[in-house]
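Key result, reporting period 2: structure in, sequence out.
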């Protein structure tokens, strides 16, 4: 139909590359998954201009709010190349809620941002359904999000993700409790599920130099293809960490993400204490040995880039070690004592002894 204003053929938003009907179809597709994340304080319905959460209904009287935002990084490139979008939703949630829980807070609600050049409803739905499953698993309501279709901003088939988690903790229970940490406190390592969502720019470079495609058998896990092994989702520590915090009077927890143990553990330590880590006190998964050997990545670089098999570290008094480890294990986590705190005599803040690979 001619444009009444200028007599020319009029353009539509869809002709400019944005399909509102596709966005509506996505909302309808993901609505049941989002509704399944309902919890006290939120009805988890979509459609409002903002998500609403009632802290009083969630049982809090004098809460401190804890917020975190993160993405999946270049792990997305592997997921896109492998055409496997079933796991990165959990990665997105885990990277945010794990940061919240190590501060002693219960993650309460989550929002996501999905941006692409051309919306593929099936792909986007798989991602958001994964986000919803992860939210449900840690009792975190998915109360909203944004899907942005921006032609020209992304290469065909590409998209990006960001997540936002908000949690709450009673005022007196915020972690870390640095003033309570003492020399001799024990460091409990909780196993990771794999690479989680950090270091993938280096991982991709190593895979490229090895001239491997993602559909070949993983050199370190013959029962899986390489893409599936590398895309193993980030572990959700919410339920186990909250329980262990109560049972074992945990003084602090560090989420081991980009920067590895070397960069993340000092973030929770008081100025007068360093950490001593015993390499060899846990079994490093074969994936990390393969990355180290194939990429000729030295030990120090491995420890400040990857989690190397330890996704979370808890600081506890010696008398509470058993309670801490047994509580984590009740939730299916693998744990071990990996070191202790000692009086600081200078840098580095994390001192390693032993051998990385046994």
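The corresponding designed sequence is given below.
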């Amino acid at each position: 139909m001619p444009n009444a204003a200028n007599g020319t053929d009029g353009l539509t938003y869809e002709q400019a590359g944005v399909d509102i009907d596709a966005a509506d179809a996505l909302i309808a597709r993901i609505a049941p998954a989002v509704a399944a994340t309902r919890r006290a304080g939120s009805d988890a319905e979509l459609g409002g201009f903002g998500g609403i959460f009632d802290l009083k209904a969630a049982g809090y009287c004098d809460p401190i709010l804890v917020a975190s935002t993160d993405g999946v990084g270049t792990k997305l490139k592997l997921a896109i190349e492998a055409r496997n979008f079933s796991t990165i939703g959990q990665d997105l949630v885990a990277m945010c809620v794990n940061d919240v829980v190590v501060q002693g807070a219960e993650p309460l609600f989550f929002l996501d941002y999905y941006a692409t050049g051309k919306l593929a409803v099936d792909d986007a739905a798989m991602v958001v359904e994964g986000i919803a499953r992860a939210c449900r698993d840690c009792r975190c309501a998915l109360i909203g999000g944004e899907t942005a279709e921006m032609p020209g901003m992304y290469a065909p088939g590409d998209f990006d993700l960001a997540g936002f988690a908000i949690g709450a903790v009673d005022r007196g229970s915020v972690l870390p409790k640095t003033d309570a940490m003492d020399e001799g406190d024990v460091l409990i390592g909780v196993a990771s599920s794999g690479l989680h969502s950090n270091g993938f720019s280096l991982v991709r470079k190593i895979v490229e130099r090895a001239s491997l495609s993602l559909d070949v058998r993983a050199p370190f896990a013959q029962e899986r293809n390489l893409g599936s092994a590398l895309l193993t989702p980030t572990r959700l520590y919410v339920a186990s960490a909250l329980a262990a915090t109560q049972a074992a009077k945990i003084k602090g927890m560090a989420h081991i993400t980009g920067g590895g143990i070397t960069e993340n553990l000092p973030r929770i330590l008081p100025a007068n204490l360093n950490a001593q880590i015993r390499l060899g006190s846990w079994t490093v998964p074969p994936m990390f040995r393969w990355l180290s050997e194939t990429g000729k990545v030295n030990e120090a670089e491995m420890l400040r880039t990857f989690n190397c098999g330890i996704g979370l570290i808890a600081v506890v008094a010696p008398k509470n070690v058993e309670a801490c480890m047994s509580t984590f294990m009740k939730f299916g986590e693998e744990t071990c004592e990996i070191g202790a705190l000692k009086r600081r005599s200078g840098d580095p803040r994390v001192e390693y002894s032993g051998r990385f690979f046994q």
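The first helix runs from residue 20 to 35. The chain has two domains: 20-173, 178-354. This case is discussed further under Risks and Mitigation.
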